[in-house]
Amino acid sequence: MTSDWRAGMFAQPDVEARILPGGEVLLSSRIARSPRVPTTLHWLARWAAETPEAPFVTEADDVAGGRRALSYGDAWRDAGRIGAGLLASGLRPGDRLAVIAANGVDHMRMALAAMRAGIIYVPIATQYAAPRANAAKLAGVFETVQPAAVYCDSVQAAPLVAGFGLLLEGRAALALLADRGASAHEPDIADLDPDAPAKLLLTSGSTGTPKAVPYSHALMTENMQATIDVWPFVERSKPVLVDWLPWNHAFGGSHNVNLTLSQGGALHIDPSGGKPDKLAVSLKALRTFRPTIHGAVPAGWAALLPAIETDADFRQAFFGRMDVMFSAGAAMSSDLFGRLSRASASVRGYPVPIVTGWGATETGPGATMVHQADVRPGWIGTPLPGTEIRLVPYGEKLELRVRSRSVMTGYWGRPDLSGNAFDAEGFYRSGDAGKMVNPDRPEQGLLFDGRLLDDFKLANGSWVNASALRMALLRRAGGALRDVVIVGADKPGVAALCWVDGDLNLEALFAAHNSENSGQTMRVVQFAALATAPSVDAGELTPKGEINRKTLLARRTGEVAALYEEEVQL
């Protein structure tokens, strides 16, 4: 290959940095924002007119075999008819419709119909209604959301949601609503208020009870247009995604869905659900549909690496038309970063860029984004156009705070929590830490520096930078360690619980680490492998596949205690 196909993929980073009193730093992008469409449904209307037969969403058909597809034309037609049916059934604009269903064609049909009718779509994680789920958690969510109707695709979930408004079950309910709406006036998207809530997304609940974050159409289209402004490559070829991230999650349900919808692309649902024991299912889907963008947490990329490196046909299919690899959740190790880059270069001639970003459910979700080909692990990019990032001293770190049109105005039904979420200047307090890659070169952007609440003090009062220690261990393990949880608050020394995937000599790993780190806050005095792998159903993993530290430690108190049963040698 004689020319670099990556040329012109990204907007040139251009960042203004201002030093504020007290050591604060204010960062903003000088890249101009492009005009946005009023609602996400304007994207759907466009592609329904221009490419009505093109698939928008496809899923595995467990009954007939093969794939079931929802085209842009059918998605627009069904949104009108089912939306009219919802209104004819007594729902009104502004009512909440809770959807407890796996990613799929029917879930998307119901979501689009609700939003077209001005009804607020509330996707809820399916595990909230699982057989062994904590019923009080779902009841607490419903108490906050107050749904007028609930749609579920599982007969097991139906008894749990009965009594919380109109119950709509499965495909039969969609057919009934479509029939009811066929003779009614279809909702006109021109009547929608772009600034009114279009959907509510629940936070993960990793730091307490899930909170509901209102997403207006204006928030969603503003955030996606900012991404398109720094990623112009998505406009030169329609994105193809093979993805399992649940739609109740901000990245899966807003970023990935809206990126696909805005460009008339295709979203093929990976039926593996991200479960490690179904890796073969993911590999088959990726081989078949050949994504142009693929996102995963570092552990997910590490799981794909053996097939990428040993199966030439899979490597060719996977990288053959890929524009970017997106790494989310945590910094990728240098070893994994390098091996993926080399493997992609063997197919494309140049390494496929490995990019990432940073944000939260409360920030729409994106606040920063990498938009350059040559970056290093840990970089989280520069502020998106129209976004201000404020770095505020917090102990020994700097908190990332965000202000933009894509930041929520407050939590739904919780004014008591909304006030504390913002500082006096209107910046959202993220609780995450960051720092500049190079203060003299703000265009290189930011580094993620962990969660502020993950750090702790030892018994002698010394602070432990848990995120820095975690990343040092992950880098040393070179992908053989899925993740590690650092513990030791009020203890005499630091200990670690390790999520091992495959063969890894933990004693050798920690001996090598400790030999190079004699300081008490970086030296690990006790370690052990987790007795069982973290579970999504138990809440120990987030929807993205990251460890939910608070829940895992609450469930593994015995394993933590065992680390300190023997006398700690300092």
Protein described:
This protein is an alpha/beta fold and 570 residues long. It contains 17 helices and 27 strands. The strands form 7 sheets. The chain has a 9-stranded antiparallel beta sheet, with helices on one face. The chain has a 4-stranded mixed beta sheet with strand order 4-3-12-11, with helices on both faces. Strands 6-5-7-8 form a 4-stranded parallel beta sheet, with helices on one face. The protein is globular and about 75 Å long. The termini are far apart.
Q: What attributes does this structure have?
A:
570 residues, four-stranded mixed sheet, 27 strands, alpha/beta, nine-stranded antiparallel sheet, 17 helices
Number of strands: 27
Radius of gyration: 24 Å
Helix share of residues?
Answer: 25-40%
* Sequence stretches where pLDDT stays below 50 over 5 or more residues: none
Distance, first to last CA: 56 Å
Overall geometry: globular
Task: Give me the secondary-structure category.
Answer: alpha/beta
How much β-strand is present in the residues? 15-25%
Order of neighbouring strands in the sheet with most strands: 1-2-19-20-21-22-18-17-16
How is the biggest beta sheet arranged?
9 strands, antiparallel
- Output the number of helix runs: 17
- Mean pLDDT score: 91
